[in-house]
Amino acid sequence: MIPERSLEVLRAIVHDYIETSQPVGSKSLVERHAFGVSSATIRNEMALLEDEQLIIAPHTSSGRVPTDKGYRLFVDRLGEVKPLSLPERTAIETFMQGSADLDEILGRTVRLLAQLTNQVAMVQYPSLDKGHVKSVELIKVADNQLILLLITDISRVQQHLIQFAAAIDDDFVATLRAKLIGALTGSSLSQVSAKLKDFTSQFSPQRETYVQLVLDTLLEQVDANRQDKVILAGTANLAKNEDDFKGSISPMLEAIEEQVVLLRLIQEMQAEENGVSLRIGSENGLAEFSSSTVVMSGYEKEGSQVAKLGVLGPTRMDYSANISAVRAVARYLTQTLGGL
Amino acid sequence: MIPERSLEVLRAIVHDYIETSQPVGSKSLVERHAFGVSSATIRNEMALLEDEQLIIAPHTSSGRVPTDKGYRLFVDRLGEVKPLSLPERTAIETFMQGSADLDEILGRTVRLLAQLTNQVAMVQYPSLDKGHVKSVELIKVADNQLILLLITDISRVQQHLIQFAAAIDDDFVATLRAKLIGALTGSSLSQVSAKLKDFTSQFSPQRETYVQLVLDTLLEQVDANRQDKVILAGTANLAKNEDDFKGSISPMLEAIEEQVVLLRLIQEMQAEENGVSLRIGSENGLAEFSSSTVVMSGYEKEGSQVAKLGVLGPTRMDYSANISAVRAVARYLTQTLGGL
DNA sequence: ATTGGCAGTCGTAACCATTGAGTGCTAACG
DNA sequence: CGTTAGCACTCAATGGTTACGACTGCCAAT
After folding, report:
1. How distant is the alpha carbon of residue B295 from its chain centre?
2. Of all nucleotides in the shown strands, which has a C1' nearest the CA of B40?
3. Which nucleotide lies at the shortest CA–C1' distance from A62?
4. Which pTM does this prediction carry?
5. More exposed terminus of chain B, fewer Cβ within 10 Å: N or C?
């Protein structure tokens, strides 16, 4: 077990390094913190911490910098949670006010989080995997165009334009609509595919291609629901903290824009604890994010966690501030969604 | 008037500078290009070009670099248009295939343009200012929730959730829907506000607040149409070309994310010529884009120009390649939209 | 008008000495 | 045994000097 005072020293090192962004040495440590001992003693402690791979010296003879492992220990064992300041609280409240639409709420949320943390903020759209069909609508907008509307119980409405080769008559649309509503209302999204299995056979052969086209679109919509989506804000903060990232930031921007990598990363973090979870540096296993930390928290809708939100920043970040910001915003979002 | 050979020299300077990103001197110029004269003569020409502010020497004694004015002359007078390569053509065709939805088409287009040019690509959503209401729909999704659907004739459907304080009955929804359709179908978006002027008075006083809520939402939607929107791709390319931008790229990323600045810039370019238009460096009047060039082209839908698309990159860019890429993509997009 | 030649300008790279922050180790101390 | 003072050592950073080289501008010759 690592003795208490060593941890105290680690905490001080992380603290100072985050503040100054300079490797921290034994002397400046005793100056800035009131340990009751001399720098030589601290040096011994630091040698110990270095043996444990919690800190590392960039060059043979300059101060120490926390390793990913060091940061991990810091957040797991030593993290006091910094409460949000008053202006931050009011910022959250004003930001969240007066939104009704899910798109708008999430858009505001992600910008808020970016502003609050000065990092890149991410908000994942609710996974509708467990959602249920509330209603289906078919609306004729032209002789050969329909709009298909899929309404689910997680405040999301999806629409898609369907183009037909020839004109379609109103009666057909009406019956199709009625049958779809009858077949699907209330069923979960994962059941939709099964429920539509023999649907086409209810119609006359010459209608079949039309029906099939609608069904294909519908299934596509359902599938689009299953596949998650992330919205981002504050990518400019990446460039602002550029020095903290070892390599160039361009591969990071690429990975972020690509979404795929990001989504998998978020997905993997799903499994962890219930509150805020972190991936520090090499922990996330991706070369382009090897000097980045991801802080994520789930948020809920109607009692069950639907998706995650969080920030991405340099490993050298203010962990307390970011963790509490992510947590607070997740709570507010849960609360806002609950009111819908 | 500037003599012909001087222009020839300017062209060579721009060409070499774009290729090497190094200030170009008289000696290397005569080596790389077959002028029939010696470096001394070229020096005289260069002194002339410098008098005209077309090129500038970063330090007293090193090669010359084109100024914004120099680039401007280059694109206006000397720009041969590089035809697209075969792989580029096929890339465009495969990218554009099999899309039906406007969102998807524009999304693909912007990614395509980014990939083709290695710059930040922007596609503006069609301005619906001159659009017409095709239909309005009200759909009840819960006792106290309606979805308002606004369908316009420029392939765009907008939806918005409306939350009521109390439950509403079906009859009311049906009559409201019918009256809205009657009042608005076919009218242009700019007329909507006027047409709804005395709409509320058709209903009994106790309904009025409900009706008003719906109308407000509707007007909000119309307004959201008028206000343009831009989608982006390839922001990672900014970081890749970082050296070409004088200052930090973070204010640029901010301005891009902000959209407002970007939209005004695009708006201003609207007035220029019909084909591809450029803003080079200081021409765009914004400090954060003082070493960037914007290349934009309009694209059309049903014969009239609806919006613009283009790229943003360093002033030191391959103008011929980017101009022809922007032009080609604009044409393909127009063509694709025409097939809808 | 063109050109070769030459002096002059600076930015860049290389080299070297100096500085100083910081370490590890050892011996002394309570 | 933990703590401490002292000391030799390391090494990045700093700054000054020099040499180099890629330029230009100008002038006299062609």
Report:
1. 8
2. C3
3. C22
4. 0.85
5. N
